[in-house]
Specification:
Layout: H1 10-25, H2 40-60, H3 65-87, H4 91-108
Helix pairs in contact: 2-3, 2-4, 3-4
Signal peptide: 1-25
Keywords: Signal
Protein name: Lipoprotein
Length: 121
Amino acid sequence: MTRSPSGFPVFFRLLAGFASLAALAGCQSAPGAVQINPTPHTLIYSYVIASGMARGQVMSGRVPPARLVQIVNADRAALAAIVYAEYNPSSAGIKNAGQAMENFLAVIEPPDSSPTSVVRR
């Protein structure tokens, strides 16, 4: 058996190539075939992350008092909805908790009215 210039036998290089192609083929799926349904546990994890984001904004000292009240109210609503969905699991409860999390994230990260450009001229 001859060695390739890389020092790795040709057979193993081909095997590694086919294995990587097979792995990438698994990534192909029909649009809409993969669905992620929230559960109370995933909503709790999302809440913990969003709460950390909100805490970081508040600690920066750049949050005006009116926005701080919005963040606190959205935080309480999201936490209450998630706790309710955790102890009373139903599709409606999980849907409400998901909507409360979306509202909380919208308050934390309001849409930026002035898009920034990466290209500097």
